User: Which sequence fits this backbone?
DNA sequence: AAATTTTCCGTGACCGTTCACGGAAATATG
DNA sequence: CATATTTCCGTGAACGGTCACGGAAAATTT
């Protein structure tokens, strides 16, 4: 394909008997071209295998793009920090192309704050939006507004069922629960499993871990229908409530050899309890590669973590959107289910440095 | 940093009282600039926070770069196919920058063919070389030749101990063996483990799986010193020899509940035997995500695979070298140990589509 | 048929670099 | 001091696109 000189827009223009202005109009669907010319140009482009020089294009183009990413605010070390880290990396990439990437955050427990985030986003007049849709109804409203304004958008983490989104990057939630059950039971017949859950009032919140739990339950009933599954609810915001919840669990049930699982990223809460009480007899499986979870993994209080490279996932989203905005490069795959990484103490060290 | 208009080379020129030509000379250390001018320009660049526009730069620059990748030739479905797939993807990226990426292949069992590959590579006059160094001594000779010609190079898959390489992308071999042992034994006391190995005459060949085996053995002697480890040698090129080798194994040892492991990518050979004989009682762990290994995994003849995304690894190498050649962007990390992915039948589906 | 509108297209300035070329000034040489 | 050489620097034409502008030709209206 690389036969000496590069093929330029002028080559295309000459061979199709028009000017480069017309070729440019065809390339960008800017109209004002007769069907005949258009077809001729298209054919020549195809024959020559012409590919525009993106540098020349970027250099000459005066457009300014902005990508806004709408995610929940977080405390250091929490799950969403990973997401934003990927955003920053993607932002560096985009900056090379003169694209600005900004984050707009909202309180994931406060609908109004999400609405404010949405309107702030619109004020920024972005070319594209990347959104983690925790509030279903409100997100629907938001994306239809985006659509009407011609702003493209992508989902990360979880997605809604509309089909105007450009792409989705996230974990296959159901399968992650299924996998989790397989890893927890590990081929052994287990009498009882404890699911540690977070008690929260959820009005209008779409909780992705619901799907994950469904996958888990299905695996269990398919493979071990006789295993008892007990829910333990704790309040993550109240350390003493966590402790008392687990205290009750460990005092009521004499068997120290428990199977514990958590479907959100807070398995370190359980690990901390185990560490405090010197309990090393449990099999614990959790999700997401947070610093604190990793420590628990290395120290043996958590046996396995299921990771998803939340950072490179958002980075991928930013990159994909950048290329879409700039080069109109088609999105390779609309639904991108990230791989589920199984981490134990022997392979986790090589996970973060990717 | 983005205060309205971008700062251009003309701004720098004006403020330091020289022409853009001089600024350009300073920027690229092309000499022919007096010390005073140079200092002045440098200071203005610093004050203004000037960053060259890479598009304009790339557009105007007439240099032609070529990257050659030297890897073993392979049959469809073999390990090195993955590597080349990443090369192709990286090549598409590089093509956007006007960089050509070519592969030069050699017979990994034939030293002479490797030497030929090396000289063919030199003939191409590449700017950079990416090499999978299976022949130690000869590779040393080759890279020192590259060095003397000012050609940069990177290692993939495994690396040698010189320190002029620009970067290395590969799996942590020792740790992968360690991990493998942990996965194979799975917390259970195992009486005996069978290591299926390939019999080959290796003259001057540096076999990376040696290191992997060392990691495996160390884990075993640290955790299960009493476990017996037996080597079974087979010849992968001779199907009947594979069969007879495994026949002997399964006839001599009555216990059908065996623990089998293979350190190269050919665990599918074992799986095929098991499938043929309907043996589903073994625990089998292997390496690398080949199509045939995946099938074996899904069908339950292999329990776990350790993967390394060999494709995106080479892609990373090409991308890193592209950015190095073009923008002199420093290599983020010299030694890039790819993560070790643990695959079972429940998460392998999401692995390939990355 | 003249006037108006629409459709379609070519032209050329511009984006921010790179680099060959040529020349002025400074320095060295005879 | 004249000449040759070196040092240093400015100039301007690319590079391959984008896009505003203006105008010719065709279609429509009056």
Assistant:
């Amino acid at each position: 394909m690389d036969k000496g000189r590069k093929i330029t827009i002028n080559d295309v223009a000459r061979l199709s008997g028009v000017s480069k202005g017309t070729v440019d109009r065809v390339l960008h669907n800017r109209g004002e071209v007769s069907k005949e010319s258009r077809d001729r140009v298209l054919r020549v482009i195809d024959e020559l295998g012409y590919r525009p020089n993106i540098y020349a294009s970027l250099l000459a183009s005066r457009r300014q793009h902005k990508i806004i990413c709408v995610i929940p605010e977080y405390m250091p070390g929490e799950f969403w920090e990973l997401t934003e880290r990927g955003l920053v990396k993607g932002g560096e990439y985009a900056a090379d192309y003169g694209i600005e990437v900004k984050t707009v955050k909202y309180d994931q427990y406060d609908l109004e704050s999400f609405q404010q985030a949405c309107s702030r986003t619109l004020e920024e007049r972005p070319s594209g939006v990347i959104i983690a849709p925790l509030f279903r109804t409100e997100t629907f409203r938001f994306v239809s507004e985006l659509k009407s304004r011609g702003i493209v958008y992508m989902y990360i983490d979880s997605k809604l069922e509309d089909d105007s989104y450009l792409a989705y990057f996230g974990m296959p939630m159901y399968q992650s629960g299924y996998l989790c059950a397989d890893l927890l039971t590990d081929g052994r017949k287990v009498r009882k499993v404890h699911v540690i859950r977070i008690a929260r009032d959820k009005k209008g919140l779409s909780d992705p871990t619901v799907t994950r739990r469904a996958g888990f339950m299905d695996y269990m009933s398919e493979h071990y229908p006789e295993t008892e599954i007990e829910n333990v609810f704790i309040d993550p915001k109240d350390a003493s409530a966590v402790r008392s919840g687990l205290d009750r669990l460990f005092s009521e049930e004499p068997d120290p050899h428990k199977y514990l699982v958590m479907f959100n990223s807070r398995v370190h809460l359980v690990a901390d309890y185990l560490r405090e009480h010197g309990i090393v007899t449990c099999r614990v499986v959790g999700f997401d590669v947070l610093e604190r979870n990793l420590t628990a993994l290395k120290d043996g209080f958590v046996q396995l973590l299921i990771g998803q490279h939340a950072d490179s996932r958002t980075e991928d989203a930013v990159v994909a959107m950048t290329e879409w905005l700039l080069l109109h490069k088609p999105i390779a795959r609309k639904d991108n289910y990230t791989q589920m990484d199984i981490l134990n103490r022997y392979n986790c060290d090589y996970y973060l440095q990717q």
About this structure: Chain A touches chain B through 33 residues (CB under 8 Å). Residues 6, 8-10, 20-21, 24-25, 27-28, 30, 52-62 of chain A lie near DNA strand D (CB under 10 Å from a C1'). The mean pLDDT of chain A is 89.
